[in-house]
Design a protein that fits this description.
The chain contains 6 helices and no strands. It has 343 residues and is mainly α.
Length: 343
């Protein structure tokens, strides 16, 4: 529906005016020529109606011959096709331009919104500054009044200034002596704090060195315990093998004794074998005793090393606690002497 009294006559008048000026009568150009009034759909509908009416006039058989009519129809179709193509291209360009303008409009609106907010903030800041300025002026006026009153009081106090200056001179001398004594006391306290700090640092370094030495000793003891465990495992393996050999020799001895009654002709040989087996058994028994004694000794040494490790760990923990205590003492503010000096 047309708005603002736009009708087909206005559209035709605007289109003819554009054609007379040599301009292309596009939809936007016609709308602009009419003062940007009316909807595009209504203007487009009027343009189609005008084109149909003009096409109907060209199709009038009474006015045109068949050959001329055919030429006009082809020209009209070609013109309509060309015009439609131009209109579509212009419409695409117009849409792109419209989109770009809308984006620019959005950016401008955003900038305007930001500027408006900034302006409001500036106005608010200006109002606050004006309020502060008024308060400052009021304070300045009060200060002027107070200054005038103080000048009057100064005039009254000048008569007392001579005696006050003499008394002040005496007090300054006493205060200078007191400051000298306080400065001497502060220097002495500072030297004492520095000496205590150096002593604490030396103790901390000594404790750290002892901790490193204890850690190295602990690592060595742990290595010795590991080696002792390996030796105990090896001795246990040898003891097991010795017991197996002893059992084998005992079986051989029993077999030899049983065969002694049945085979007299081998008595001498068996006696020799028996003597050898007995000697081997005694040797294995002696070796077994040695292994057992060695294993017992290794077990005792391992227990002793574990005990030493526990002692070293306890010493290390004690050294760490002492070191933490020294660090806490170093970090704690030594303000007692300073407070006494200030008092």
């Amino acid at each position: 529906m047309a708005r603002g009294g736009i009708n087909k006559f206005h559209v035709k008048q605007a289109r003819d005016g554009l054609i007379a000026k040599g301009q292309h009568p596009s939809l936007d150009a016609i709308r602009t020529a009419m003062g940007n009034t009316g909807s595009k759909s209504t203007i487009h509908r009027y343009i189609r109606e005008l084109e149909e009416e003009e096409g109907t006039q060209l199709d009038d058989h009474a006015l045109l011959s068949s050959t001329l009519k055919d030429i006009i129809e082809r020209l009209a179709k070609q013109l309509r096709a060309d015009a439609q193509e131009i209109v579509e291209r212009q419409e695409i360009v117009h849409q792109q331009q419209l989109k770009a303008l809308q984006e620019r409009l959005t950016g401008t609106e955003n900038a305007l919104t930001k500027c408006t907010a900034d302006l409001q903030q500036c106005q608010s800041d200006l109002a606050q500054e004006c309020t502060k300025h008024q308060a400052t002026l009021s304070a300045f006026h009060n200060e002027q009044l107070r200054s005038h009153r103080l000048e009057q009081e100064v005039q009254g106090l000048k008569s007392q200034l001579g005696a006050a200056e003499r008394h002040q001179t005496s007090l300054e001398e006493k205060h200078q002596h007191a400051r000298d004594a306080l400065e001497h006391f502060r220097n002495a306290a500072k030297e004492q704090r520095e000496q205590e700090s150096r002593r604490h640092e030396q103790q901390v370094q000594q404790l750290q060195a002892e901790m490193r030495q204890l850690q190295q000793t602990l690592i060595i003891k742990q290595s010795e315990i590991t080696e002792s465990a390996k030796d105990n495992a090896r001795l246990a393996t040898q003891l097991t093998e010795s017991r197996k050999n002893q059992l084998s020799l005992e079986r051989e001895l029993k077999e030899t004794t049983a065969a002694h009654g049945n085979e007299k002709e081998r008595t001498i040989l068996l006696e020799r074998s028996h003597g050898d087996a007995q000697a081997r058994g005694e040797a294995f028994a002696a070796e077994l005793q040695c292994l057992q004694a060695s294993m017992k000794e290794e077990t005792e040494q391992r227990a002793e090393r574990e005990k030493e490790c526990l002692i070293l760990r306890a010493k290390l923990e004690a050294q760490a606690m002492i070191l933490d205590s020294f660090k806490a003492q170093l970090k704690a503010p030594l303000t007692d002497v300073g407070d006494a000096a200030s008092q």
